[in-house]
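**Polypeptide and fold**
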Amino acid sequence: MTANFDPMQLTDVLSRLNGNLDARLLAILLTRPKLLTVADLDRMQGEMPTAHPDGQWTQNRTLAQIGIHSPAHRARALSIGESLCIYRDYPAPKGCTSPFAPLWINELVRRDGG
């Protein structure tokens, strides 16, 4: 995956988010995916169930992006999504992808031919 971004914009966003875990993980995924660790995913799994709804939505999106764009962490992202069941029953309109991370990951990987 090649990301086109301005590093200064990324730094600005991260500073405004004040160390937000999902923002940090997404930044790692976009800039240096090999730095993403199992400990990062463990922390996400531990924090996501009790996160504020806005944070939970963002963490879920980050989990899905990790599963979609990082084949090395895909199985773990799928496992976390399955175990937490966050957004499992979220209604998705016809033709739209569910925000349930395992469905989201599998669908976008399938579309991409992976």
Observations:
- The chain has a mean pLDDT of 80.
- The chain has one domain: 7-111.
